[in-house]
Amino acid sequence: MEFTTDDGIQLNYQSYGNGQPLIFIHGFGGYQEIWTMQIQYFVDHGFNVITYDQRNHGASQFDPNLTKIDRLIYDLKNLIAGLHLQNVVLIGHSMGASVVYGLFDKNLDENVCAAIAVDQSPKMIGNAAWPYGFMNATRANYQEKLQELSHVRETLNGVTQKCRERVKVAQHQFPFDRSACNQLLLDHARRDWRKAVTSMTKPLMLMTANQSPFFNGAFADAMCNENQIYLSHAAVDQTGHCIMAEQPDKFNRFVEDFIKRI
Hints:
Layout: E1 2-4, E2 10-16, E3 20-25, H1 36-44, E4 47-52, H2 69-82, E5 88-93, H3 95-105, E6 112-118, H4 142-147, H5 161-173, H6 182-190, H7 194-198, E7 204-209, H8 218-224, E8 231-236, H9 243-246, H10 248-261
Parallel strand pairs: 3-4, 3-5, 5-6, 6-7, 7-8
Antiparallel strand pairs: 1-2, 2-4
C-alpha cells in the first residue's frame, strides 16, 4: 500500500490485523521486513500491526533533498494522521527510535499513547559527562565512526532465517544508497534528544541489547533516573543491535508486557 506525505513523497506501508495500532519504524539503511517476526505474533494477540519503509528506504520513494531527520518525523506524523489512527504505540529501532524521540520533542504525539525505543541512545556524540555515545564517538571523531558503520557486525549470532530471507529479497529489489543518505546520517548523529526523553509524560520503554556493538545500555538507566514515572528500561541478553530479529520471542514478550502495563 502507498501513502502520500504532505510534500508529495510516496511511502510504502503494510497494515495487518485489527485492534490497537502498533507502528514499527526501522532504522537507517533498514527495511520494514526487519519486523517479520513481530507481524503475526501481534496480529494473533489482537493488534493492528503497521510497518512502513521510510523515505529513501526500501519500496518508498527516493527524495534527493532528504538531509534532516525532521522530515522523517513529519512523515510519521503524516502516516498517523492519514490513516486516522488513535491510541497508537510506536516501536522504533535505531534511527527509527530517534524519529520517535523527535515526534515527542515536537509535541506531535497527540494520537500516541506510548512508545518503545530499541537500542538507540538519545545522544550519539559522547563527552566526559555523557559516556553513552555511538561506539564511543566524540565531536572530534564521530564522522569517522559513522563511516565504520557498514563494516561492523550488527548482530551477535545473526537474525532468524525467516527474517533474513525476507530482508534479502527487499535488499535485492530496493538497494539502499548509503552515500546519498550520508547527510541524513550525520544529522541523525548530531541530535540530542535527552530533554525530550526525560520530559516524557507518556510511557516510554528503552530497550537495550546487552551485546550491542553500538551503544552502552547504561544510557537507559541514566535516562530512567531522570524520569522514574514514565521511563522504563528492558535489557535483553544474547543479542546485538537487531533485538527484534535476533531474539524475537524475548522482544515480543517485552513489548506485550509493556503494552499491558500502560
